[in-house]
From TrEMBL:
Pfam families: DUF4487. This is Uncharacterized protein. The lineage of its organism: Eukaryota, Viridiplantae, Streptophyta, Embryophyta, Tracheophyta.
Length: 232
């Protein structure tokens, strides 16, 4: 493939991973289909994360392409605030939201409000399995931690993080449990810290923690304090 074609294929593959994450979020919000969310988590979560990690670790993925891939998945907060409606998604809109996801292209994915939480959930999953990342990929993921804080300042995101529960695989990977999104996020961040402790990317993580120590947003500040307490 030519570089431009490879970039498009990688982005389309990453979008498929993001779509699966979005389905998981939507299913977890509907009481009558929560069991379907558990099945999806059991069958697809680790597989989709493995696929994304394989793209990030690939020797054919240049540093520029790796960053472009992450930028297409985890767009900055300014894009969110400019493109996402402030109106809450009601249960009656869930069906149309699913249809919207199916019709997305790479270009329109960044403006789809239904994918907002899915991006956070996907980032959380990548951090959870960050031990499988190569060093260059660890640097790339660590560079997106500021993106995570920026997104968490969005009222729709932090309210969902504090109130939502998602199905996750337990430590054995054989049992699905329901865990609060906030707890899962904190655990994933701590896992990333452990995996970066012996990595050259640790210095970038230290810089991030120092720069975010006095973060003005209450949820972001609480997360940073949790990480500082875990570190020291």
């Amino acid at each position: 493939l030519f570089p431009s074609q490879a970039s498009l294929v990688f982005k389309e593959t990453a979008l498929c991973v993001l779509m699966i994450s979005a389905f998981k979020v939507l299913l977890s919000q509907q009481t009558h289909v929560k069991s379907a969310g558990e099945v999806m988590t059991n069958l697809l979560e680790k597989t989709t994360v493995d696929l994304l990690i394989a793209l990030l670790n690939s020797g054919e993925t240049t540093r520029e392409l790796r960053l472009t891939l992450l930028d297409s998945l985890f767009v900055d907060a300014q894009c969110f605030s400019n493109q996402i409606s402030k109106k809450q998604i009601h249960d009656s809109q869930a069906k149309s939201a699913l249809v919207d996801i199916l019709s997305l292209s790479v270009e329109s994915a960044t403006s789809a409000r239904v994918l907002l939480l899915a991006r956070v959930v996907l980032f959380q999953s990548v951090m959870r399995y960050s031990s499988e990342l190569e060093e260059d990929a660890k640097f790339a993921i660590t560079s997106k931690l500021q993106w995570l804080l920026d997104v968490l300042t969005d009222p729709e995101v932090y309210s969902s993080v504090l109130s939502s529960q998602l199905p996750v695989a337990d430590g054995s990977g054989k049992t699905i449990i329901w865990e609060s999104m906030f707890s899962a996020l904190i655990l994933s961040l701590k896992t990333l810290m452990i995996n970066l402790s012996s990595s050259p990317a640790w210095e970038e993580l230290e810089t991030f923690l120092l720069q975010s120590l006095l973060h003005p947003h209450f949820l972001c500040w609480q997360i940073i304090m949790e990480l500082w307490c875990f570190w020291v």
